[in-house]
């Protein structure tokens, strides 16, 4: 029978008919299979999920698995098994090995004689005992079972030696499942993909949407600002986030950039000199190899470049000292240093001079470098530059 229907056949409804047509508490993972898991919920809504919790007995080797509901998905032909644990189930763990520790599983398991030949037709909460080893690992889970917890049993662990240290030995692995279309509450280490684009899940304090390839924080859907620490890669160009330093950033498709760039600023209080009659970035008598500042071109493609210094021409009233910006994009010179764009000074007395220039036609989003360039109008006159600065302000 290729097509099955529940509550329709006049010849009787099989157990498989009932399971494979279940459309209730089952998060889709394919077009016909669902996600195995525990149904979420807690008294007064305080916790994500309390069903089937493992409560260990302090100082001992016993524990109980509490009440709860779950669904365990099997093959397409067998369908999904709904399970309800209505009374706590007691469990007793074997004592620890004398030499090595081990890791046990606590599982919710389905026995179905019609498919597994087990002679049983029931659900059971069981311990699957691991193998002691120097570096123990959890055993494989039985077929058609739901792993609830791992429990580490250290060597020589027994009731007489203090029993299992439940707070550190117990690891909660309970997956969750919800009705189709419901928001799935889950853990941050849950790597399972979504069942369909538009599938939502809640991880910690973040609502996420499955995009068909990745879980994307929900602010994408409403254009909101993503909280700090939530998103490493943007979901789309134009998405905004709050950085860990409190800076508003915008995703440009490849990197996060300041939403409001600039101003960019660099300065030096270390005086330097030159007698070069051609523009040079390097000055003598200073530890600053070159004064530079980088900036990201704004959407307008225009910026204001400001520069200045305290200058003088040693022992000369006729020679001039020039300081001009050079702008580069990578290795390409966009603006070469030029006297027309220079802050200039003549005289043997320190004089503070500055200038501001507008630069247009920049490539928005590209990173440019401004370098302070210097020259003297005479190769025999030493020109001094002190308290130098560069500043770039974006124009909206």
UniProtKB/TrEMBL annotation:
This is Uncharacterized protein.
